Amino acid sequence: MRTLSPRNRELLNLVAVGMLTGLGFTSVYIARSEVVSPESLTYAAFFLLVYLVAHVVTRLTVPYADPYLLPMAGLLTAIGLTEIYRLNPDDAFRQGLWVVIGVALFSATLVALRHDYRRLESYKYVIGLVALALLVLPALPGVGREIRGARLWVEIGPFRLQPGEFAKILLIVFLAGYLREKREVLAQGRLKDFGPLLLIWGGAMAVLVQTNDLGSGLLYFGIFLGMLYVATARIVFVVGGMALFLAGAAFVYQVIPRVQDRVMIWLDPWPYANDESYQLVQSLFAIAFGGFGGTGLGRGTFTTTAGTNLIPDLNTDFIYAALAHELGLAGVAAVLLVYMLVVARGFRLAMLAQDGFSKLLAAGLTFGFALQTFIIVGGVLRLIPLTGITLPFVSYGGSSLLANFVLLALLLLVSNRAIAPRD
Amino acid sequence: MQISRLAVFALALLGALILATTYWQSWAAPGLANRKENAIQVVAQFTIERGEIYASDGKTVLATNTKRQVNGRTLYFRRYPTRGLAAHVVGYSTQVRSRAGLEQSMNDFLTGSNENLSTVVDTNVDKLLGRHVVGNDLVLTLNARAQRVALRALGKNCGSVVAIEPSTGRVLVMANSPTYDPNLIETDYRSILRTRAGCPQAAPLLNRATQGRYVPGSTFKVVTAAAALESGRYTMETRKNDPGYCVEYGRRVNNYDTTSPFGSVTLFQAIQYSINSYFCEIGKGLGPGPIVQEMKDFGFYSLPPLETPEDERRASGLYKSGRLFEPKDSSEVDPGRLAFGQSELQVTPEQMALVAAAVANRGVVMRPFVVERVVGPDGKTVTRTRRHALGRTMSAGNALALAGAMEAAVRAGTGTAAQISGIRVAGKTGTAETGREGLNQTAFIAFAPVEAPRVAIAVMLENQRGTGGSTAAPIAKQVLQALLQGP
User: Fold this and answer.
1) Across the interface, do B25 and A293 touch by the CB < 8 Å criterion?
2) Does residue B276 surpass a pLDDT of 90?
3) CATH number of this structure's domain B41-140, picked from the four choices 3.40.50.300, 3.40.50.1380, 1.20.1250.20, 3.90.1310.10
4) For B89-104, what is each residue's pLDDT tens digit?
5) How far apart are CA B420 and CA B18, in angstroms?
6) CATH hierarchy code of domain B144-371+387-484
7) Which of A217, A282, A416, B370 is 20 to 30 A from residue B450's alpha carbon, by CA?
8) Cβ of residue B120 closer than 8 Å to a chain A Cβ
């Protein structure tokens, strides 16, 4: 029997994902036929079409790339879109548009970097500076917007973007280039070589203070430590870095009341169940209610008897709670396994990659993806203090989706190069 | 090498998420479901089509649901078509004030979540098929027509009527006045609190039948007489001289229901004419011990059994500073006054109905119940309440003798107002001073027909100017007629 080529395998997987999406939308339609119009059943077909376009682009640009990453990303997007659609069909329409733009950006990235993405390495300082600029953007008066205490957004015309999502990827590219170049000197552990790194630490702290948010700071710094470890193989740097981060976090805890609240309700949410921890506590109730099998898509309870929402931000920060409620343990464990598979594939191709930059890039992107998932879901599950970041590919929100499509494109580029036959 | 370590770490982080989710969705789930802050549970209750509650005819609907579409889902809200008819028994199930009555205590049945293998399987199958959960219906023992008669007879009085089928314990009537409209609990609670009635504390939400604190007065003489007969020291023919009063601790205790001395009387006559001095002598002779023991046989000193919530029932007995108390000897209670029901006795109408029922049932108390059967959504009976004897209060012979004296009280004694032509009625009146000038708590317990009792009844009223014979007995008569003669 002839083995399938990677791209044909990808195509088959995508068709499977398309059928799953169809099932999901049909189930929501059946459960909520009173409020949902039948035309929306075409969403699944449209969704499959968009991903088939992405598939054609991968066929043309990265023929040897990993065949599972794109379908798994598609599956996660479909799960998110279905749940968002169930919560609010209008949001799902907007999210659908973002998927289209995301696939366009994905294709553009692949086309632009199809010959050699390693060109990026030579622009690493420019990229690093752009990343910093993007991070600072929300703090600027005029364009910056603060939403519920977190200063993470910029508003341009009708669009509201979170530049931090893009900065994250640029930062990983910069770090991959920088660490590859300096890994030997850094491994020796001389203090003067750590200047730039301390600068990054300072930057992460600044971001933390400026955005009022522990989550983004933890994410950026975690990615940095992970990549530093891969580059230098010195666990002591990781330990030292964590100590520095904790010191910084302790300082931030002292000065920012919002962070104090988050830690307080993390340690014991029950006394504040009607105030500060309302969202967290109701989300835990929603998760617990799901039990093993969940209520079924479209059959969950997210509103009061008067029709108002029980949990604010359900389709962004708390989408995991909505999924756990309706899909149950069986469903969300499967979703988390998909994340684990993406992560496993990502690290696998980091190991397969031939050169240091590619290895670091793939490892950094994958680790960032995993860490972001852990920080938001762990926060919702009260494993760690809750912070408002998005669940990759699943949460409602354009910036996050676009950034993750770029991340996916970069991973495919790395894997294509790693697996492509040499001549 | 480093990459694989980082990979293991990243996968471990995600694995921890699966473990944490498992924790919340299995181990922690039952605890979370019971937390009062849980808004989902509150809403989820309204997605269940609660079972309906019917009166004994299986047709009169006491509680049902109205469907409403909210945000694309069907919610069921409770509606009580008969309003105040059986409000204290049925109770209510609302969002803002949770639940009361059978709506609270029978919630598991009404929501179909009772732990029964077949219903568990059914509800899970329903869940898989996406059907909404339909609870079990309740069919009560209450007779809607007699209940209506009782409420009308009570009128503006504050008080309670409890009627029980002596041979089974079926509660046929449990009517309180004032009552309330359970439909208003959610929409207009304040109008319920503003209810006015013929007593200083209207307390419309109180189930007087099971929580009311009434002084039994002379109706308690039935208990004392049973104790006397059971002691073997008295028969119905035992004679004593009635000087018109009884001397206790050097103080005179006058007869109440009758004003002139009777001279030499038997126990039979003492019951018929409610002669306090005779019972005072019994009390002094027996001491509190045998009387308290007899009370316990009737069910005093423990929560009277019923399906309504425990905190909506109250034990009858002697109370001292708000607490149930059991006298060891005569120094702790005045046995003479206890004997004719004038001590620190506090009883519920339900308990006094049980006293009448025990005499009617040849001395055996049957466990009272108000839920006849639980019916599944498919129309099949899930459970049916079985009759159950709680114990013997006196020999059948003594019960018959007591019944004879009580019949005499209705035929030609204090309770003549309860006479029904063609039906032999046995009864005992009671009138207790409240300490406020001219105002009494009045009572009447009875059963009929004497030869084969089908109904035992207790009527207790607050803030009355008349006696038990003139105020409570006529109400008992009307309810007895409604139950025995029917339409």
Assistant:
1) no
2) no
3) 3.90.1310.10
4) 999 988 766 789 999 9
5) 75
6) 3.40.710.10
7) B370
8) no
